[in-house]
Specification:
The complex is a heterodimer.
Chain A lengths: L1 E6 L22 H9 L3 H12 L11 H33 L2 E6 L2 E6 L8 E5 L7 E7 L5 E5 L1 H4 L4 E5 L9 H6 L2 E6 L10 E5 L8 E4 L4 E2 L4 E3 L3 E8 L5 H5 L9 H34 L17 H13 L6 H19 L13 E2 L5 H4 L4 E4 L6 E12 L2 E3 L10 H8 L3 H12 L4 E4 L5 E4 L3 H12 L2 E7 L2 E6 L2 E11 L7 E8 L5 E7 L1 H4 L10 H12 L3 E10 L1 H15 L5 H12 L4 E12 L3 H10 L3 E5 L4 H10 L9 E6 L4 H18 L5 E7 H10 L1 H10 L2 E5 L3 H13 L4 E5 L5 H6 L2 E5 L6 H5 L2 E3 L4 H40 L11 H11 L2 H4 L9 H6 L5 H4 L6 H25 L7 H23 L5 H23 L8 H7 L1 H28 L3 H10 L13 H14 L36 H4 L13
Parallel strand pairs in A: 15-27, 15-31, 27-30, 28-29, 29-30, 31-32, 32-33
Antiparallel strand pairs in A: 1-8, 2-3, 2-4, 4-13, 5-11, 5-13, 6-7, 6-12, 8-9, 9-10, 14-33, 16-17, 16-26, 18-19, 20-21, 21-22, 22-23, 23-24, 24-25, 25-26
Helix pairs in contact in A: 1-3, 2-3, 3-27, 7-8, 9-26, 12-13, 15-19, 16-17, 18-26, 20-21, 20-22, 26-31, 26-32, 31-32, 31-35, 32-33, 32-34, 32-35
Chain B lengths: L5 H6 L24 H28 L2 E5 L10 H6 L6 E7 L8 E8 L6 H4 L4 H5 L27 H4 L5 E6 L2 E3 L1 E2 L6 H7 L30 H7 L7 E8 L8 E7 L10 E7 L9 H27 L11 H10 L1
Antiparallel strand pairs in B: 1-9, 2-8, 3-7, 3-9, 4-5, 4-8, 6-7
Helix pairs in contact in B: 2-9
Classes of the chains: A alpha+beta, B alpha+beta.
């Protein structure tokens, strides 16, 4: 699996050219491919089948246009959108492809278009130009052989990265670069932008025939920009769509919200119901035909009929009932969902002034899920904290600095020590200054700016420069430091890079003056302190680390060692070998590094403060009140994590809360520890205690591979968890674990290490923070600050859920209403599938009259934002799915049946005998239905802006205007009907009667429930609207306690306590709050499909009863 | 603007969302409240209004004098009714005498009422060609009729289809107190139908010439737009029991007058067990006699009043402070635990 790239070879290879294509379609395949994609959805197949059946005039009750019209419209809309997007992609591709690029051909430089670059070409790039394909760097304008690139388009990181040319290419001049020949052995294209394990070998006469290893640091990747470097040139190794960027491109799996799943399920149920109706009425129709209709001489049935006649009546009913599944629901939902997303982006209160970032919804389809979140998994650094690192304290050689003032940089003792050239301090500062990957950049004004990938390194270098140890420049292998007006030069020999496994980085430098070689290391305490030389007393440092961690500071241990040149040379060889390995390079390098990093002299501990973001404790408090469980997953060490958790209200200190530790180094220890914690948790659930457990990455690894079940039980029982020292993949595993217990998870993070968990979670939220945009890009939503999360969930998520719940159920209600009327009519028309309504009315009913008003539900607010924020517990209604479930749906189903009966019975009695003219009667029934719709929407909305009023009643007026217009056309099937009806007093009296009978009982029932069996939402509505003084909430903190107690009661007593009629049909939700997490869910499982999927049989927490 | 971040604002706030009441979801909204007061008032008001409407409709309906005479059973000999009615030779004259209970003011509408007849049966109701009925050039457009479309030799039947073919053909001759009264058969069809749905230059042809005779025959010298009985018949009924206008009597009939109707009992409702009746009726603003609306309004109105009373009683018995948050489950729990 290797590719050999021959540099500057005339021979044409078979690799693809550099034409980039992000387009999905071509002009030719657009129509078939797009149609194919659209028809892969069940709903669309269904509608197509219906539309095709309608072409058979014998069975179609209405004009086929009534289905084809909307169907084609819907298809055209989504096809146009796709085409437009694709066209834009094509345009931007074209721009990139036709970019003018210098390459070397036959020893001379030539201008070609970017798309004509072939693998093996030597490409020249000037400053601020975009890299057209993946290159291996072979020459730059800088004598040290480095160049700087900005990789923002690739990984979202805004700092400059240094790229170096491989050692074997150092020192080539222009002329040589034109003629260079060689071979690069590299892996086949992949999408890992952090790895490039390859080798380069130049052919004679260029230097010796030596293999030189290549890493990602020797590459210029497509879409990066060359900065601060006059020119660079490189060999194209991957081109076109085979570049690292091209390979990592891809459409992420679309996420489906819990609500979508529920709607799909309900659609399925309605489909089954429809089939049942078709079968029953179809056979009844056939029986009636054979017994009764043959007696009706005027129908003129022949005695022998073709065989398919038996299918005709069932198929007619299929078509009549086809509108039970509303064709408009998909379009309506798409529309409102994109509006929810817009509301999020428009929200001024989620705009971050500091970084000038508004909230962004990359995924417009999952807003409802925000309201149903049950678990939030949060990163710590940069998410809860500001990720603005400030060097606060340090402990150098056992002396603590900065303890009094809280700021070591102002500590006189330290300043004195610096001034006095205290050797310990100088060593410490040297490590701070050199052991990093920071790039100093001289601005035109002469000030030095540091570009750092890690905020910690940035803080250290800046602190050092404040202490007069200034990193002035760093050019590849050379670093210049000014210390107290002295210039010190160092050669950087090797960099032992930081990885999340090693948790430390080291650098090998040689002092240019003395020629001495030093190893400088910094890293986490547990990664550095064990490397101390055996005689060193490490206790002070361990104490310092503990002390700082308790203050919530981030600690780094710094150490160094002088190397013998023999030792270094020997090691250097094996390091080079490991670095040129093509297989398992990372592991091999780590092993070699370890050989050098020992017997360190620990210099001291630095403590960096990372302040909590504003509003974090309040946000967490509110979200926990709303019943969301928080897990903090961090790479930081345990004590720091616990400290931060305490600071931000995640856990409570004794005696209110209790923290359980799961630790141990071996499998047995971990198992015992887990057992103990689980036992404690089980017992303690009866006490009103804020329970949390802490686990570190090591123990977690063992647990996840061996004790998954016990841990799952613990995860379900415990509301709060702190997982420290966890790797990105462990974060993702934890998300997966919670998801497998059927919880809605939200992962929030800001850095590249959170990407996997963000992608894994039901909802990924990225903080567009200082660690680059990687997380924000992968996320479904990105916000500027953690505190916006409460607004995102409680306001936007909750409203979205409520609105969609209403909208989707209403869509089914109105379709069912018209279907039920048709079915009722069929009993009076010989069960032959005659449509009461004409084609135009049917089409307009579904697409127009009933779709427009309900869309304004996007403006509906059941409670004001303020009330929700004051009573976050109300989110429970969304979490538990209280507003959209089979039971509420049954309510809507019943309502549509009731309304259909009302409309039909009143119509046929009011328009009996001499008035029973088909066209008139159908319009009376239709007007009645439309009027009821308007009332239903009015009744179900909670707040009315002028938009809603206009849409609801304007629509009613529009209904008449449209029908008057249609009544003018003689061939429309309702010629003059509307004019005649409107002149009849009976018509108006009938409509009034329909609305009275249809809405009276519903209004009465609603009032009764609202007043005497109110749901929590109702109570808050009343409180809010009575306008009186806003009540004070009784100590809400104890909610958690009460939860715990309830759980206990349910365990200890019989299910009697569990009044589990979760959902009640019609109108409002049940006031009895017990959720689908009810412990005893025996008989209600069928109504709780979410639980039926549950793999675990662990009892769930009852939230509130 | 806030002074603390004015520096930041002046420098960069390009991405700040533009403020509008709509985008911030802050449009002024009215939030109606379901207070006991409003609900009780609303229900009482609705109740009163509905009772008033109910009384008005009921009295209007009661004002109407309606004579219904079902004649299908009495106008055929017992035995083979179908055979009798299908025999074109037999004498089908049948005389009925009715007594008018109350003074009937003109115009008095004469309807024939048929029940058990499914004009809305899918196969039947679609069997017509509106184009053929309207446009002279389209007399060949009989495709929509499916049945009774063309004669055996392919000539189009005008008007085609089952509806026209099965047209009602009983006739009524009416006399009051032995004096023959003229039945006005003009303008019994909708004007709009005559003017715009049935052509004035289209004449019946090939109609009822097939082997099987359905209902009435048409005079081939009268254009379709003047064939009002046909136009009335072709306004299909939505229900299996329907009345269609036969004609009008332009004179008053006094109470206790004897109305004699001589019926040509031609139409076959016997094979499917349907009934036929003759209806004489006056009209008011609600149309024909129909107690349903009045009764329904009265029932609903009194139910509303009853509910309003119920709500008042309930309110007295079970007082609830509006929006007392202590009723919130989570607060209730806390209270419970506290005491």
């Amino acid at each position: 699996m290797k590719r050999f790239v021959y540099i500057n070879d005339e021979y044409q290879n078979d690799y693809c050219d550099n034409r980039i294509s992000n387009t999905k379609y071509t002009l030719l395949n657009f129509l078939p491919k797009n149609l194919w994609e659209q028809f892969r959805r069940f709903m669309n197949q269904y509608f197509l089948l219906i539309a095709c059946l309608q072409l058979w005039s014998l069975i179609t009750p209405v004009n086929p246009a009534s289905t084809w019209g909307p169907l084609i419209f819907i298809f055209a809309v989504s096809a146009t959108k796709e085409a437009w997007d694709d066209y834009n992609r094509y345009i931007s591709d074209k721009q990139v492809n036709e970019m003018e690029i210098w390459i070397v051909k036959n020893g001379a430089r030539k201008h070609i278009q970017a798309q004509d670059i072939r693998v093996g070409n030597i490409v020249w790039i000037r400053e601020n130009e975009e890299v057209p394909c993946d290159l291996v760097l072979i020459g730059t304008s800088e004598p040290q052989g480095i160049c700087h690139v900005e990789t923002a388009a690739l990984d979202g990181e805004i700092d400059l990265k240094t790229r170096v040319i491989p050692s074997s290419c150092v020192g080539l001049d222009h002329e040589q670069l034109h003629k260079i020949k060689g071979v690069i052995e590299c892996p086949n294209p992949d999408k890992d932008i952090r790895r490039f394990d390859a080798n380069i070998r130049l052919f004679p006469p260029f230097i010796d025939n030596d293999i030189c290893p290549l890493t990602i640091n020797n590459t210029l990747l497509q879409s990066c920009y060359l900065r601060n470097t006059e020119w660079a040139c490189g060999v194209a190794v991957y081109t076109g769509n085979e570049t690292k960027l091209g390979m990592s491109r891809g459409v992420p799996e679309p996420k489906l919200t819990a609500m979508d799943a529920m709607i799909d399920k309900l659609t399925g149920a309605i489909f089954l119901f429809q089939i049942a109706v078709v079968v029953v009425l179809g056979s009844a129709g056939n029986i009636w035909k054979d017994t009764e209709a043959r007696k009706q001489w005027y129908v003129k049935y022949d005695d022998d009929e073709p065989w398919y006649q038996i299918l005709v009546i069932p198929l007619r009913f299929e078509l009549l009932c086809s509108i039970m599944i509303p064709i408009s629901i998909k379009v309506s939902l798409d529309f409102v969902k994109s509006l929810y997303a817009k509301f999020i982006e428009w929200d001024e209160e989620m705009y971050d002034h500091e970084t000038d970032t508004p909230a962004h919804a990359a995924n417009t389809a999952i807003s409802e899920d925000l309201g149903q979140v049950e678990y939030i998994l949060t990163d710590k650094t940069g998410t809860l904290t500001e990720n603005k690192m400030i060097f606060r304290r340090c402990c150098i050689g056992g002396v603590f600095y900065g303890n009094e003032s809280g700021d070591a940089l102002r500590d006189v003792e330290l300043l004195n020590a610096v001034a006095n050239n205290s050797p310990h301090v100088i060593k410490f500062l040297t490590v701070m200054t050199l052991c990093n990957t920071v790039v100093p950049i001289k601005s035109p004004s002469g000030a030095i700016l540091y570009k750092a990938q890690s905020q910690d390194e940035d803080a250290l270098v800046n602190a050092a420069s404040n202490l007069h140890m200034v990193l002035v420049s760093k050019n590849g292998s050379n670093a210049e430091i000014h210390f107290n007006r002295r210039v010190v030069q160092y050669d950087i020999l090797d960099i032992l890079e930081f990885t999340s496994d090693r948790k430390r980085m080291s650098i090998v430098v040689s002092d240019c003056q003395s020629g001495k070689i030093f190893l400088l290391s910094k890293g986490a305490d547990e990664a550095i302190i064990p490397c101390a030389y055996s005689e060193q007393r490490i206790k002070t440092f361990v104490d310092a680390v503990d002390k700082y961690a308790q203050l919530g500071l981030r600690t780094l241990c710094l150490g160094w060692r002088e190397l013998e040149s023999d030792e270094y040379l020997e090691w250097s060889r094996s390091f080079k070998e490991a670095n040129s390995a093509l297989i398992d390079r990372e592991w091999k390098v780590a092993e070699v590094c370890q050989k050098l990093e020992h017997s360190l002299e620990i210099l001291g501990v630095s403590a960096i403060e990372d302040r909590l973001q504003a509003g974090v404790p309040e946000t967490i408090e509110i979200l926990r009140q709303s019943g969301i469980n928080f897990w903090m997953l961090t790479g930081d060490k345990q004590s720091t994590a616990i400290q931060i958790a305490l600071l931000c209200n995640l856990i409570s200190s004794e005696p209110k809360g209790q923290l359980l530790h799961i630790n141990g180094r071996t499998e047995d220890e971990v198992a015992r520890s887990l057992e103990r914690v689980l036992l404690t948790t089980r017992i303690t659930t009866s006490e009103p205690k804020d329970l949390a457990f802490v686990v570190d990455g090591w123990a977690l690894e063992i647990i996840l591979s061996h004790y998954n079940e016990a841990f799952t039980e613990l995860a379900v029982l415990s509301k709060t968890a702190i997982c420290c020292r966890v790797t990105p993949s462990q974060k993702a595993q934890l998300v997966k674990l919670l998801k497998s217990c059927d919880y809605r998870t939200l992962a929030i993070g800001d850095g590249g290490n959170d990407v996997r968990m963000i992608q894994q979670a039901d909802i990924g939220v990225g903080i567009s923070g200082r660690e680059g945009l990687q997380a924000a890009r992968a996320a479904d939503y990105s916000i500027g600050k953690f505190r916006f999360l409460k607004r995102l969930i409680l306001v936007h998520g909750r409203y979205s859920y409520n609105r969609t719940a209403f909208l989707s159920q209403y869509s089914f209600y109105k379709s069912l209403l018209i279907c039920f009327i048709q079915i009722l009519f069929s009993f009076l028309s010989g069960i032959a599938g005659t449509s009461l309504f004409n084609s135009v009315s049917l089409m307009a009913y579904n697409v127009f009259y009933t779709s427009i008003p309900v869309l304004t539900a996007v403006l509906d607010k059941d409670l004001s934002e303020k009330t929700v924020m004051q009573n976050p517990e109300i989110l429970l209604y969304c979490q538990a799915g209280r507003l959209l479930n089979p039971s509420t749906f049954a309510g809507w189903f019943g309502r549509s049946l009731y309304h259909a009966i009302v409309v039909f019975v009143i119509t046929i009695h009011a328009y009996a005998n001499e008035k029973s003219e088909m066209e008139e009667l159908s319009m009376v029934a239709l007007s009645g239905s439309i009027l009821l719709q308007a009332f239903v929407v009015t009744l179900e909305m909670n707040s009315f802006t002028f938009v809603q009023l206009l849409a609801i009643w304007g629509n009613f007026v529009a209904f008449y205007v449209i029908n008057f217009l249609i009544s003018i056309i003689p061939s429309a099937g309702m010629y003059t009907i509307m004019f005649r009806l409107c002149r009849q007093p009976t018509y108006w009296v009938t409509l009034l009667l329909i609305s009275g009978v249809g809405m009276g009982p519903i209004l009465a029932l609603k009032y009764f429930r609202y007043t005497y069996k109110p749901s929590a939402i109702n109570i808050l509505q009343k409180a809010e609207r009575s306008g009186g003084p806003m009540y004070t909430l009784v100590n809400l903190e104890s909610q958690l306690r009460s939860d715990v107690e309830n759980t206990n009661i349910s365990i200890s007593t019989t299910p009697v306590k569990n009044k589990n009629s979760v959902y009640e049909p019609l109108l409002t939700e049940s006031p009895i709050i017990s959720t689908r997490r009810s412990l005893v869910s025996s008989s209600f499982d069928i109504f709780q499909p979410a639980q039926s999927r549950t793999t675990s049989s662990y009892p769930r927490n009852i939230k509130a009863n | 603007m806030d002074t603390s971040d004015s520096e930041g604002d002046s420098r960069k706030s390009n991405n700040k969302p533009k403020y509008s009441k709509f985008s911030q979801q802050e449009l002024p909204a009215c939030k109606p409240r379901l207070t006991p007061g409003t609900v009780v008032v609303a229900f009482s008001l609705i109740g009163v209004i509905f009772i008033l409407i109910g009384l008005a409709s009921l009295s209007a309906s009661q004002e109407i004098v309606e004579l219904v005479d079902r004649y299908d059973a009495d106008c055929v000999p017992t035995g083979d009714k179908v055979g009798f009615i299908q025999n074109s030779e037999t004498d089908k004259i049948c005389t009925r005498t009715l007594t008018v209970p109350k003074h009937m003011k003109s115009p008095i509408h004469i309807y024939y009422q048929i029940s058990g007849f499914y004009q809305n049966y899918r196969r039947y109701v679609k069997s017509r060609s509106d184009k053929q009925l309207r446009y002279k050039n389209d007399v060949h457009v009989t495709k929509d009729c499916h049945y009774e479309a063309n004669t055996d030799d392919g000539a189009p039947i005008v008007p085609c289809g089952l509806i026209a073919w099965s047209m009602f053909n009983d006739t009524f001759a009416i006399s009051v107190n032995k004096n023959t009264i003229e039945v006005n058969k003009k303008d019994i069809a909708w004007k709009s139908d005559k003017n715009n749905k049935f052509g004035s230059d289209i004449y019946p042809s090939n109609f009822q010439k097939g082997s099987l005779i359905g209902g009435a025959k048409l005079n081939e010298s009268i254009p379709l737009s003047e064939q009002e009985d046909l136009i009335v018949w072709m306004r299909t009924a939505a229900l299996p029991t329907f009345r269609k206008l036969y004609g009008r009597i332009e004179t008053d009939i006094m109470a206790n007058d004897q109305v004699t109707v001589v019926i040509q009992n031609n139409y076959n409702t016997y094979s499917f067990g349907g009934s036929k009746a003759l209806v004489l009726s006056t009209t008011t603003w609600i149309g024909g006699k129909n107690n349903f609306i009045g009764v329904a309004y009265l029932t609903l109105g009194s139910l509303c009043l009853f509910l309003a009373m119920g709500f008042i009683v309930l309110y007295m018995v079970k007082r609830r402070t509006l929006g007392d948050p202590t009723y919130l489950s989570w607060n209730r729990d806390t209270l419970d635990h506290r005491y």
